[in-house]
Amino acid sequence: MRAMIFSGLMLLALCGNAAAFDCDDPANAAVAVVCSDPALLQLTKERARVWKETHDRTKGEARKSLVADERRWMKEYPRSCGVTGNEPPATIDKKVQECFRRANQERIAYLRAYGTAGSAAATAAPAAVPAVATAPAPIETAPPVTRAVATPEARYHLKFTFACQNPAKLSQVLGALGRNDIGYALSQTDCLPVPEGREASLLSVAGTVAKVRLCSADAGCTDVYAAASMVLDPNGKPVGK
Questions:
Q1: How is 98-154 classified by DSSP, letter by letter?
Q2: Contact 128, 211 (CB under 8 A)
Q3: Both 96 and 155 in a single domain?
């Protein structure tokens, strides 16, 4: 019975109805976590609102992909924060609440960027954020030495991060993320969130800054800067020092 209720809540949430969460009788552990903190509940409602806006403005295959990815994300992000099962936990760790908060904030950023011109989110989706994930440290704005990459077409992948049109702005955005100020990062029109697992061509590495090329069928290709620690080579190792 609880599994059926949970499935119903998931579908309602996909339609943007975050008010479907019954905080008087949580159907499962994930709902209990959301209901355990008023700010987290409001953030979840905000994500549902942004989801509806994104769903309404996308069409055709892009909408189908968005719906499928939302279903996947709704199932995976609680587990990535260490929350499983249907029985609400007796106590809820602050770290779990923080993980849920971070996951919802990053999902909001992804949904707002979905399908927009020049957005890496147009063709790929982020995985739920790990409970122990931390923002990368600010980077130097003018790395002194640039290392060219001989094979820019190799398949590199990015962790969830922000990419910017210039290294100076990237440093400011990563510094803001380190302070948990995601609002600043989202307000920068020359920076965009890059979803987990996004493929990219690596053009060069300068200290802790990597220049990468992101391409999508809708927006073509664009060259941006990201933290080198967030760029993984074909073996899964960061390209930064």
A1: HHHHHHHHHHHHHHHHTT-TT-GGGT--PPPPPTT--PPPP--SS-S--EE-S-TTS
A2: no
A3: no
pLDDT at 39 over 80: yes
Model pLDDT for residues 137-163, shown as the tens digit of each residue: 444 444 444 444 444 456 788 888 888
Residues 6+ apart with CB under 8 A from 15: 52
Let me know whether 7 and 84 are in one domain: yes
Cα–Cα distance measured from residue 50 to residue 69, given in angstroms and rounded to the nearest whole number? 15
Q: Is 9 exposed, middle or buried (0-12, 13-18, 19+ CB in 10 A)?
A: buried
* Tens digit of each residue's pLDDT (9 = 90 or more) over 76-129: 888 888 887 777 777 888 888 898 998 888 888 888 888 664 444 444 444 444
Whole domain around residue 203: which residue ranges?
147-232
Q: Which residues contact 235 (CB under 8 A, 6 or more apart)?
A: none
Please indicate, yes or no, whether the overall pTM of this predicted structure exceeds 0.90: no
In the structure encoding, which two tokens stand for residue 164, read together? 């910017």
The dihedral over CA atoms of 223, 226, 229, 233, expressed in degrees to the nearest 10, equals -20
